Batch of 4 targets.
Target 1
Amino acid sequence: MSKWWVSLLLMALVARENPFEPSKNVGQTALGDEVPDYFRYVNVNLPSTARILTKVTLTYKTLDASTHTESVDVNQRIDWHYPIKVTQQAAILGKQGKIFRVGAFDFWIHENKLYLHTAHKIQRSFVLINPYRIVLDTDRDEQDFRQKVQVDEEYVNNIAIETHDNFYRFSIVLDGQYQYKIEQKNDYLVIDLH
């Protein structure tokens, strides 16, 4: 009889509130609405006297919080005019993905979702036609931007940013007409096209 009570107690502890609701897969690695905050990239500008990159050294923490260093010998000529870029954007996008930089913001496409990396709150969104585009107005800070970036990928032809008195205006020119839904997730705006 006591085994029956223990079994009943254990079943009550592991039961979900709604057993018909699908369970969440904790180990799922596919990019969904929640964007993992992985390292994207860093640019390192070297002084005008730099001519040969001899070594690259990375310091990282492991699962047990211990710190380790990994060095790679390079010994190749460099042009100091161009920054050295270290990136792991494939952790977010997969190997085929591209991140586009518009103003100080990262923008990318994954499946039918558009991602804009910004902590600024969205004020409003609307659609304009000819060309068909989604316009997003977000809060702004003191920086001024006016830039247009050619994307030419599925769903998006280009993206632009302009600075107004009280907001940034992003204009995303699409390759066709879509319905859309916008959500703010962590430090990202996620635009779901359908």
Target 2
Amino acid sequence: MSIAARLATLRKQKGLTQQALADAIGLPITQIKRYEAGTSQPSLEAIKKIARTLRVTTDSLIFEEEELEADADLAMQFQAIASMPRKQQSVIKQLLEGMIIKYGAERWSSRLK
């Protein structure tokens, strides 16, 4: 589901009209209509205001539910790491950060080719 569809669904679930949402976040109704039609993307500031008004997380507006779920194996590994001493957790975090940065750099460089 797109941001546009999630926004419209959440707004309706909360019983708000487009005008009420627009008034609550200080935007013109035409902008809310554009967001819900998918012809315009909300700014980060607008997303924050929308999330506060609808009482949801910004993640729930932006991401699909399955994008936020952790892999079961990774979840178990993270639980194991959580029980380790802080010093070992710090080392593991540094290793993970390095691998994530390396992966991101490889992805970007492959796109440029």
Target 3
Amino acid sequence: MTIEDRLREMGLSLPEPAAPLAAYVPFVRAGDLLHVSGQIARDAGGGVLRGLLGKDMDAPAGAEAARSCALQLLAQVRAACEGDWGRLLRVVKLTGFVASTPDFVDHPAVVNGASELMVALLGDAGRHARSAVGVAALPLGAAVEVEGVFLLR
């Protein structure tokens, strides 16, 4: 079963890869590693999911935002692999940035939205190292941003 098949079973699809917002590229391949730039949370229509965790949204809503970041990461991976999912061997590391109030402490629960989707789609190859970091603000007022490192064949 392909990643697209699993996505369809889950009622999901990958968006078009987002263009960079500034002076950087969406991904860089270095040897067998693919480094994908941070992807900000977006709604189904492509609009930015804005807000602060602990003020404008709770951890479950933040997890959904992180899940949208994971879908965008995978869209970039698909582009880097020219559509050949057989080249993706595993997720190595995700780093999640959560815009939050100073008293919000559930950053790991938010970033779980991205982590759990990777495992649901890739099984053991989706298990990864991870960091979840709280920040005061993210680009365009986004609630969550996630970057990733992937191992390619």
Target 4
Amino acid sequence: MTLSTSLARGVAPTTPGTLHARTVAGELSAPPRQGLTVRFGRGERPDVDLGVGVDDLRVSRRHGELTYRRGQWWLRNTGQQLVRLPRGRMLHLTTDPLPLATGYTPLFVKGSGYREHLVELYVAGHDDQGPVSRRRAETVRPETWSLDDDERLLLVVLGQRYLLYEEDPRPLTYRQAAERLAYLCPDARWNERRIEFRIEAVRRRLHGTGFKYPLLHDKSEGRPADNRLLHNLIRGLVESTTLVPPDLELMEDDEAWPDPAL
């Protein structure tokens, strides 16, 4: 079944399972009808229903498609470049189709150089009006997490490169952090063991609170040898604006210290 034929029959915007799709080149809505396929890419109709990356030769003329079957919309990559989904998931030409969850899903088609082309998808649920304009509504503040003074200082020291918004930042080691804390607050007696204990306590407290990234070890994988969980903790706190660049003022004597990478 083609999209144009299905739309000609009409569809109520509140029908559960209705697909809304949007790019900078256009937008469409498609009803949840068995076998209906929506195609997107650089090409023109009738090859695609929704244009994306129309001026980028790295984007395939028919780069992906969404098909309604078994009560869900299924996404498949039909192009040469990868399609990126939230949480770092990638779809290749050979990847099995992926079912879309109800609600909003952004996907990015990799293009030339650093270009990535956004396709916004929204699957309506029950009693759902679909995406609506909210230009006059008040802005929802980011969800932040509570930290005491010691935790904030410790995480600022460990995560200073993140707060400087460096490319591909990594936390300081516990040894480096202990050296800096010994200078900033010598009476607090910070050492590597105490730092590790406090960081683990923060991770355990924030685990299960809706934090964006994993904070605890997956026992089925064994204990990791890297600092991935510390990276997740700092990254999530910075992205949520729990930690912000002005917090670097807590390290007011930081200029006296050399870069720990040196």
